[in-house]
Design a protein that fits this description.
Strand 5 and strand 6 form a beta hairpin. The chain has a 5-stranded antiparallel β-sheet with strand order 3-2-1-11-12. It has a 4-stranded antiparallel β-sheet with strand order 7-10-9-8, with no helix packed on it. The chain has a 3-stranded antiparallel β-sheet with strand order 4-5-6, with no helix packed on it. Helix content is 7%, strand content 40%. The N and C termini lie close together (11 Å). It has 2 domains: 102 residues, Copper binding periplasmic protein CusF (OB fold (Dihydrolipoamide Acetyltransferase, E2P), Beta Barrel), CATH 2.40.50; 84 residues, no CATH class. With 200 residues, the protein is mainly beta.
Length: 200
């Protein structure tokens, strides 16, 4: 029986089931996209070490995984947006970002300048704006999480201000089916898929 509690697993189950007859059962992996090379069709992601609990993912498996998008375009959902903000703990005022140069995850504490919750995407404070907004004069960064309806302006450690803009943007979560670890057969953009409707 499909319920709101188990509906989030339906796309993955259907994905595996419909491909099971195509020469043996493959595997499913999920991760957060930190880079997407459209010209080469390569997705780089941080895998989830807690796949059995989709409500509480832990994107912390290193090194990052690089996979080729499906050969058949119809087997891929919306192209993923990449970003290196892996986790934001607004209550604890710390975040985890992926450091490309060091190829590792960094946990950093920040100073909150302004934090607004329940901010809808059509709110004048965010509508039509591209985030993150980096103010180097005031050494602040403003980001907006549509999923969490959170608008946050903060001061990171000074040495982190020079990091690329996408450091402060959360990448899309994707789930993919594969047999060869480097090649996907089907990719679903979880962040851009209404899983509730899929499960109905």
């Amino acid at each position: 029986m499909i319920t709101p509690q188990n509906a989030h697993w339906l796309p993955a189950v259907m994905m595996v089931a419909c491909l099971a007859g195509c020469g043996g059962l493959g595997k499913v992996n999920q991760g957060q996209v930190i880079q997407f090379d459209r010209s080469k069709g390569l997705i780089t992601l941080i895998s989830d070490s807690n796949p059995r609990d989709p409500a509480n993912p832990r994107f912390d498996v290193l090194p990052p995984v690089v996979v080729q998008v499906p050969a058949r375009p119809e087997e891929m959902g919306p192209p993923p947006e990449a970003g290196k903000l892996i986790n934001l703990d607004a209550a604890g005022r710390k975040m985890i970002v992926f450091d490309t140069a060091a190829q590792t995850l960094r946990t950093l504490a920040y100073e909150a300048v302004s934090q607004r919750e329940e901010v809808a995407r059509d709110d004048p404070r965010v509508a039509g704006k591209r985030f993150p907004i980096i103010d180097r004069n005031n050494q602040t960064i403003t980001l907006y999480s549509q999923k969490r309806r959170l608008l946050l302006t903060f001061k990171p450690p000074v040495e982190y201000l020079s990091l690329p803009e996408d450091t402060w943007r959360a990448g899309d979560v994707v789930r993919y089916y594969y047999k060869d670890p480097g090649k996907t057969l089907r990719v679903m953009n979880v962040s851009k898929t209404d899983l509730q409707k899929t499960g109905e």
